[in-house]
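Bench log, entry 3. Co-assembly request; chain sequences pasted below exactly as received.
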Amino acid sequence: MKFHKDMLLLYAVTDRKWTGRQTLYEQIEDALKGGATMIQLREKDLPESRLVAEAEKIKELCHSYHVPLIINDNVKAALLSGADGVHVGKEDMAVSDIRKIVPEDFIIGATAKTTEQAKKAEQGGADYLGVGAVFPSPTKQDAIRITRDQLKEICSAVSVPAVAIGGITRQNIEELAGGKMAGAAVVSGIFSAQDIQKETALLKKKIQEVLNL
Ligand SMILES: Cc1ncc(COP(=O)(O)OP(=O)(O)O)c(N)n1
Ligand SMILES: Cc1nc(C(=O)O)sc1CCOP(=O)(O)O
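Structure output for the full assembly:
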């Protein structure tokens, strides 16, 4: 699927921790019904073969809603499953190396916590940046924090669009107004909700207001 910055508006990043009443597949379907514009499968503990099998099923689901599926960290699993792209951080394969081995429309997202990292990712061929943590994150408690001004500075330093991440909820997203991001990437603010579909829809409406869309 060809990347467009509108896909970043509400980027739902999964966390199996919140499954129980529902399977991850059902939770993702609720997020899609609520209007999530991109999904990232973030699995830290699954063996690669299971990750590929999961990703194949979730890709079909996402595509039935015309939404791209991105795989966290694992380029090989993303390619084997036919997912639309990968998101990498500084511990992962370099963006420039990934760009050399993937098909033309393959989406590459990269984490950037400084303008230097943002420029390097852009030069390497990243399609978008994930910039945070803009609030304390329940999902990644050791995530390095950045201020709203740093978010704005990083987003302004590059031409590729960026999504804010880290502790974003419907209640605090307004504090990011003017941050120059194209959208929000959210884990617990979506997947911890009792009613994921409803929370996703409300959060999307709020983001549209904050971004003046
Ligand atoms: C959209 C988005 N932005 C940032 C991240 C963080 O990625 P990374 O730095 O690789 O850290 P882990 O996700 O591997 O803990 C992300 N996943 N998505
Ligand atoms: C995966 C991830 N990366 C971050 C970063 O700052 O790079 S924060 C984060 C977790 C985001 O989850 P939640 O919406 O529950 O805070």
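The domain at 5-210 is CATH 3.20.20.70 (TIM Barrel). The first strand starts at residue 10 and ends at 13.
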